[in-house]
């Protein structure tokens, strides 16, 4: 009976198919969350055929849900990441996690990976500066980013200035002229952001996020160097890239992550890689 008293019901819905369901979760997980929001991982066939993550606040309201492919494994490589306590005082991570939902984070992070200009419509003037400082903190030493915060009124007055931007508001896409934010490309950023939000300790969550951002940047740089080293008659294959990472870091980079890397390298650096045909890549991996 004690177990029943310690659990509470949470109403959730699948972000893919919309099916609703009820989950029984431990009350202390929700009520004692220091930042006021908790990640609930929903496995396949628990509510529906899909796996997803729901973020619930202390009032048991679902703040955000997104599909997350838990089968994707992020590369296990060591990158030097330090957290400066003085810089941590420049922004309030609890406020950021409460006001910038995971879906927004995923899209912003992916936009940074591909070098896109991003405008975020937000009327949270006191918080906007915190978010920009937070982005600078997690990308220092790796990606350059161009993210602007703009109020609803100012955006209406200057829409033309943002015609080439990806424009977001509350996690939703307001403008994406070239359909860059397609769901299939967001699988890896979703896993990265989920790890960030799922970690209860703020310092640890920052280290996890900063580390994953640095890993992505480092592996992109490796691919750039590999591509530059190829002879005129050579093509960059998936197998060639995987072997490079295995030899250099002693780790295996899965195909979903590798596919994202190949795409982000071309977009961020505005180049065309000497990629092998898809058929060659497929049969090469079967060897």
Describe the structure.
The protein is built from twelve helices and nine strands. By secondary structure, the protein is an alpha/beta fold. It folds into three domains: 66 residues, no CATH class; 105 residues, no CATH class; 76 residues. The strands form three sheets. A four-stranded mixed beta sheet has the order 7-6-8-9. It has a three-stranded antiparallel beta sheet with strand order 3-4-5, with helices on one face.
Summarize the entry for a quick read.
This protein is of the alpha/beta class and 287 residues long. The protein has helices spanning 2-5, 27-31, 85-88, 93-99, 102-113, 125-139, 152-157, 187-198, 202-229, 238-249, 255-269, 278-286; strands at residues 7-13, 20-26, 37-42, 52-57, 62-67, 117-121, 146-150, 166-169, 172-175. The termini are far apart.
